[in-house]
DNA sequence: AACTCCCCCAACCGCGAACAT
DNA sequence: CATGTTCGCGGTTGGGGGAGT
């Protein structure tokens, strides 16, 4: 089977597999546009990449999915939707294509029939609310106000996108139910939330209580002289946040 | 045995994101 | 910033082969 300009398509031969395997072993993974030439293959770069990632890569696990793997796929799909590469990333040795094929031909039918069993004759499948992990940081310039009694500081926290600096630490997953809801609001698109923190001493250091929805992040401090926070920034560990607090 | 149907999975395609110039 | 190139992902297709008749 030959395509435009004689580029081969369709099933791979053993000889082609060997050429591709030798090429990747010699030059490493990546730079796929160079692979057809380097390997001496009459295939397009996409075909080479796919063949390696889905079939030839030594770490790929062969054989049927175990019950544990199926269970994990169902849970992850509920959380992530059709984001096969993310799901496969949590299943060592399984490719996105494997997971997708398995879902479409086996698991999906099982899940649907289970739902129908549970819901009796209800045929409507509820829309999956997907929490999409994406890099988020909190803006440094938070607004704040101080209550004299009780001595509390209210801090407004805002989401930013991608303006990372190196002084972050991961956000501790909250255990308090109200805190979870509050932070979920933020992650679900709310522009800002307000949280309260007790003031500690004259030169206030912003400290986290145990199980608070954040951790102290390095050198941030309340600057009395300038009346502002020195450095206040957080990362949200979205994966663990979702994983631990989303009911599956 | 011959034929049809259907399932499974490897591979392709199109598109958006990321990167390079 | 604009444009071109490459990468990576998800949806879809099609052929091989097993099951059923």
Task: Describe the structure in your own words.
With 248 residues, this protein is α+β, with helices and mostly antiparallel strands. It folds into three domains: 4-56, Orthogonal Bundle (Arc Repressor Mutant, subunit A); 67-118, Arc Repressor Mutant, subunit A, CATH 1.10.10; 137-237, no CATH class. It has helices spanning 14-27, 35-39, 45-56, 67-80, 84-89, 96-118, 177-187, 238-245; strands at residues 137-138, 143-147, 152-160, 192-198, 222-223, 228-229. Strands 1, 2, 3 and 4 form a four-stranded antiparallel sheet that branches. Helix 1 (14-27) crosses helix 3. The chain is elongated. It binds a DNA duplex (21 and 21 nucleotides) through residues 9-12, 30-33, 45-47, 49-51, 53-55, 82-85, 96-98, 100-102, 104-106.
Structural class: alpha+beta
Distance between the termini: 46 Å
Count of DSSP H/I helices: 8
Major pleated sheet: 4 strands, antiparallel
Number of strands: 6
List the secondary-structure elements in sequence, H or E. HHHHHHEEEHEEEH
State the domain count: 3
Query: What fraction of the residues are assigned to beta strands by DSSP?
Result: 5-15%
In terms of per-residue confidence, which ranges show pLDDT below 50 for 5 or more consecutive residues?
Answer: 121-180, 191-248
Radius of gyration: 25 Å
Broad shape: elongated
Q: Report mean pLDDT, rounded to a whole number.
A: 62
Estimate the helix proportion, in percent: 25-40%
Protein name: Myb_DNA-binding domain-containing protein
Organism: Cephalotus follicularis
Domain Myb-like: 8-56, 57-107
InterPro entries: Homeodomain-like_sf, Myb_dom, Myb_TF_plants, SANT/Myb
């Amino acid at each position: 089977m030959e395509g435009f300009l004689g580029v081969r398509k369709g099933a791979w031969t053993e000889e082609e597999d060997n050429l591709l395997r030798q090429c990747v072993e010699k030059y490493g993974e990546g730079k796929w546009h160079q692979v057809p030439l380097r390997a001496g293959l009459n295939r397009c770069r996409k075909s080479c990449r796919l063949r390696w990632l889905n079939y030839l890569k030594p770490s790929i696990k062969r054989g049927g999915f175990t019950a544990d793997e199926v269970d994990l796929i169902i849970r992850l799909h509920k959380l992530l939707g059709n984001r096969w590469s993310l799901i496969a990333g949590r299943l060592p040795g399984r490719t996105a294509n494997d997971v997708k094929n398995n879902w479409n031909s086996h698991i999906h039918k099982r899940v649907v029939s289970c739902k129908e069993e549970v819901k009796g004759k209800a045929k409507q499948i509820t829309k999956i609310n997907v929490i999409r992990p994406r890099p988020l940081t909190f803006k440094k310039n938070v607004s704040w106000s101080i209550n004299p009694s009780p001595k509390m500081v209210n801090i407004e926290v805002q989401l930013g996108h991608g303006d990372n600096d190196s002084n972050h630490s991961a956000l501790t997953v909250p255990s308090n139910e109200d805190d979870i809801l509050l932070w979920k609001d933020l992650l679900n698109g709310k522009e800002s939330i307000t949280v309260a923190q007790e003031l500690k001493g004259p030169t206030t250091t912003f400290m986290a209580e145990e199980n608070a929805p954040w951790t102290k992040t390095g050198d941030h401090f309340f600057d009395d002289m300038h009346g502002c926070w020195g450095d206040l920034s957080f990362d949200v560990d979205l994966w663990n946040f979702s994983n631990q607090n989303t009911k599956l």
